[in-house]
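ok so for the tutorial part 2 we go from a plain amino acid sequence to predicted structure tokens. step 1 is just haveing the sequence, like this:
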Amino acid sequence: MSGFNYHKASDVADAAGKSSSDDALPLAGGMTILPSIKLGLSDPSDLVDLAGIGDLKGVSVDGDTVTIGAMTRHADVAGSADVQQAIPALAALAGGIGDAQVRNRGTLGGSIANNDPAADYPAACLGLGATIVTSNREIAADDFFKGLFETALDAGEIITAVKFPVPAKAAYEKFPNPASRYALVGVFVSDGPAGTRVAVTGAGVNGVFRQGDMEAALGGSFSADALEGISVSEGDMASDLHAASDYRAHLVGVIAKRAVAAAAG
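step 2 — the prediction. this is what the tokens look like for a chain of 265 residues:
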């Protein structure tokens, strides 16, 4: 492991200042950053630990919006009575991330900041029409995810919370890798104040994306039958040792129908 400077941030402003260098990285749960450093895939000059910033943790509900702090752990999202009541699909998604060790260390903000193409939370953000709140601004989920491991965050910009509008109905289904529990294909569907939305993770060559044809079909009739005949282009799908592009294209349709059936039921 290479050397780096370790900083424990006292508040968001302190974290933003210490992370302003292009070679500095904020440290949330560490589920991706620390293995990347150990494997030589990342070589930060500084790690800025966010764990001591209490304002970044917790769940609150205000009317039709659920706000979750960026440092809230997956296990806490899954176990939150507020999330379970307002957006049960989001609680279920959090409960299916990785294994118990990952869920008790990994955080919402760390997951979406990393934007792994097979992660679950990016699908929830896009699928619910969430707003990502940072130390500088608010960013619509549609504008936040830019590509593989790429987001709209600037250097030194810290995610502080995510605001999720409460849908009328929603569900998340995934076909997980049996070892990592990452999604080979995951589909989050919702119908609510953000409209009818279908977000796909684990499959696209450019990471998480919305499936417009499915959204249009479900806007007319929110049922699994409405997705009959809608195909997904194999050319837009990733292909790797876990699954070929044609298999992923097929799975998107299958998993989307399962998600719609779960949400409608």
